[in-house]
Design brief:
0% of the residues are buried. By secondary structure, the chain is mainly α. 74% of the residues lie in helices and 0% in strands. The protein starts with a helix and ends in a 12-residue tail after the last helix. The chain is rod-shaped.
Length: 50
Protein backbone atom coordinates (compact mmCIF):
# COMPACT_ATOMS: atom_id res chain seq x y z
CA UNK A 1 0.00 0.00 0.00
CA UNK A 2 2.83 2.37 0.88
CA UNK A 3 4.54 1.83 -2.46
CA UNK A 4 1.37 2.80 -4.32
CA UNK A 5 1.03 5.99 -2.30
CA UNK A 6 4.65 6.88 -3.04
CA UNK A 7 4.19 6.14 -6.72
CA UNK A 8 1.07 8.30 -6.80
CA UNK A 9 2.84 11.14 -5.01
CA UNK A 10 5.78 10.96 -7.44
CA UNK A 11 3.43 10.88 -10.42
CA UNK A 12 1.59 13.97 -9.20
CA UNK A 13 4.90 15.74 -8.50
CA UNK A 14 6.18 14.96 -11.99
CA UNK A 15 2.94 16.17 -13.59
CA UNK A 16 3.20 19.45 -11.68
CA UNK A 17 6.86 19.80 -12.70
CA UNK A 18 5.95 19.13 -16.34
CA UNK A 19 3.18 21.73 -16.31
CA UNK A 20 5.52 24.26 -14.69
CA UNK A 21 8.23 23.55 -17.28
CA UNK A 22 5.81 23.91 -20.17
CA UNK A 23 4.57 27.20 -18.76
CA UNK A 24 8.14 28.52 -18.44
CA UNK A 25 8.96 27.46 -22.01
CA UNK A 26 5.81 29.12 -23.34
CA UNK A 27 6.69 32.36 -21.55
CA UNK A 28 10.22 32.26 -22.98
CA UNK A 29 8.94 31.71 -26.52
CA UNK A 30 6.33 34.43 -26.11
CA UNK A 31 8.93 36.93 -24.86
CA UNK A 32 11.27 36.01 -27.71
CA UNK A 33 8.57 36.53 -30.35
CA UNK A 34 7.54 39.87 -28.80
CA UNK A 35 11.14 41.10 -28.91
CA UNK A 36 11.42 40.02 -32.56
CA UNK A 37 8.25 41.92 -33.51
CA UNK A 38 9.36 45.10 -31.76
CA UNK A 39 12.79 45.22 -33.35
CA UNK A 40 14.26 47.76 -30.93
CA UNK A 41 15.46 51.27 -31.60
CA UNK A 42 18.07 52.41 -34.10
CA UNK A 43 19.78 50.63 -36.94
CA UNK A 44 20.01 46.88 -36.51
CA UNK A 45 22.44 46.21 -39.34
CA UNK A 46 24.63 49.22 -40.21
CA UNK A 47 26.28 47.46 -43.18
CA UNK A 48 22.93 47.24 -44.92
CA UNK A 49 22.74 51.06 -45.44
CA UNK A 50 25.91 51.47 -47.56
Amino acid sequence: MLIYMLATAMTVAMLIATVFGLHQEAERVRAKSNAKQFGGFGIRNPQRHF
